[in-house]
Amino acid sequence: MALRHYTLDFKLSTAVDSATTVPDLLSIFHEQEMTETAHETNGHGYLGTFVGKNGRLAILRVHSHALVTIDLQCYEEDNIAQLDNLLNALETKLKVILNGNITRIKRLPALVRGAEVDRYWPTADGRLVEYDMDQIVYEEDSAYQNIKILHSQQYGNVLILDNDLNLAESDLAYTQAIMGSGRENYAGKEVLILGGGDGGILSEMVKQKPKMITMLDISFKVIDACKKYMRGTCGNILDNLKGDCYQILVEDCVPVLKKYVQEGKTFDYVINDLTAIPISTQPEEDSTWEFLRLILDLSIKVLHPSGKYFTQGNAETLTEALSLYEEQLGKLSCPVAFSKEVTCVPSYLEQWVFYSVWKK
Amino acid sequence: MALRHYTLDFKLSTAVDSATTVPDLLSIFHEQEMTETAHETNGHGYLGTFVGKNGRLAILRVHSHALVTIDLQCYEEDNIAQLDNLLNALETKLKVILNGNITRIKRLPALVRGAEVDRYWPTADGRLVEYDMDQIVYEEDSAYQNIKILHSQQYGNVLILDNDLNLAESDLAYTQAIMGSGRENYAGKEVLILGGGDGGILSEMVKQKPKMITMLDISFKVIDACKKYMRGTCGNILDNLKGDCYQILVEDCVPVLKKYVQEGKTFDYVINDLTAIPISTQPEEDSTWEFLRLILDLSIKVLHPSGKYFTQGNAETLTEALSLYEEQLGKLSCPVAFSKEVTCVPSYLEQWVFYSVWKK
Description:
Two copies of one chain form a homodimer. Chain A is of the alpha+beta class. Chain A has three domains: about 5-110, Double Stranded RNA Binding Domain; about 115-165, Spermidine synthase, tetramerisation domain (Spermidine Synthase, Chain: A, domain 2), CATH 2.30.140.10; about 170-360, Vaccinia Virus protein VP39 (Rossmann fold, 3-Layer(aba) Sandwich). In chain A, about 25% of the residues lie in helices and about 35% in strands. The longest helix of chain A has 18 residues, at about 80-95. Chains A and B meet through strand 1, strand 3, strand 4 and strand 5 of A and strand 1, strand 3, strand 4 and strand 5 of B.
């Protein structure tokens, strides 16, 4: 049973004395049969906690600076209309008490804590965002990661790997961006996809009749789950691991890439759909950066001299991580140039950077 | 001074006894010199509040069902690293205590309450979302509404009217969608824009050399603010209220529309950029629905028989409000047909519906 957590905040122009604000509010809590405990705050204003029936808890703080905050926790099964009325009563009373002194009133949508379906998937740049997920479609642990597919009303099914939102059925924009935003002609070309287990790139790419697409993804479980539940992304392309112009190899891409390098095999396009750029900005200490450099170096090695390498970056606002990635591009054994563009991927709730890299 | 509010929740497979969980946690709070008050909850588990120095407050609840929740409030100027350590210590300890019984651990980005720049602008469908706004660029009250322009790192400047996020400089997708998504040819056409004070539609439309665009917006203050601070949207088009192929009339559109009807004046395109569809689903009792019907009826009356009417709808998930709007379309004095499409407008953080309407 989830806990609903309401907040109601009054930002003021000048601090108020709790003696003039609190007494009028107490009667509202008393009407709801909530028992007050006033706490000693050592000069940080009034802090009262109010415990009621059915597990209800309210916290009223008249801070010593110009702010009044109210928290209200209740269980999901509680009488929500009654709680709304309580908040309305507090808001109305405070508007009267603080009249002329209010800079902002903020009453946010309730935070729902401990719900069956988790709706909070913070952005890569660390912001709190609530989604409209309403159903767990699939959840399993593979040898590599936790795999979840949740249903969202507006984004369709959403693939979440290790609690990181990967792709939703609504996100054709992602696939188009990592394929070069419609500027490339894949007809007759040799293409290598690293990762891509959701099948989005493969599904779009075969429409262009390349000579051969090789997709390397380590996780059969991801492929299998997406085949079943992400058909808005992959269509029927994952129904077979082999087709006229494609093959899916369920393998770790590193040894395969090393083998290609040894054999001197090259590709017209390498699309790295493995993972976003690590957010950590200490590349020396972070093994994900090391992995990224390894993949990048091997990929450029198997890239035809006139070929192109596409990959996602990360959130546009993570400028340090992106700069660091661009620094890595300057340190490859083979000199490369790059361009980047920013795309709006519907389910990401933040602007996302994509890179194109080619040999100088 | 803002209040940072952290939450840390453990969802469990089976309920736990507070006697086995709480004592081990108390020492962590005591180390931080936080004073415990245990509250009587009438069978709803353990509820302890902990008040510390610098205005710190923690709440620990071991609910009588399978959930443990922790809240931690501190001031912005507090030692954030120390608070992080406290949460880390609690999380680590709880992982040990609850080992084998944990379904989900959720530690959300801190809610920042009472900050100078408000970053929480819930979606139309009522979800809690945090933006990356970092600066108040403009704020003023007009006779009609509160006008705010905030700066966002990724969306540029964002226009907010009466606390409703209208448009960001990143949102060309909105303008393109409400102009018919590139399927229309405005060259040589007569166009009427209702609202549109941000100048986005006007700025895009003049590029297509229509015969004449008439824009009716009631608020000079909005136009003037956008001219200065939303240039990523309007370019230089608002620098003059009149140009080769456009005129901006700063007027209430209703009497002007009525005058056009009387004169028998018609337009090839009417673009209603006034407001989203009301969310309320009791149209009889809601004056915004009445206003919407009035505008719609007048707009269709001034529409050339082969003309098109474009407007925004609302969030894709507000299916009831959208259905109700479609019902209204069926009740107009002149019979119309319509189509709709869903667009991802970058700053909206939800899929948005746009309508095309034409006379049958």
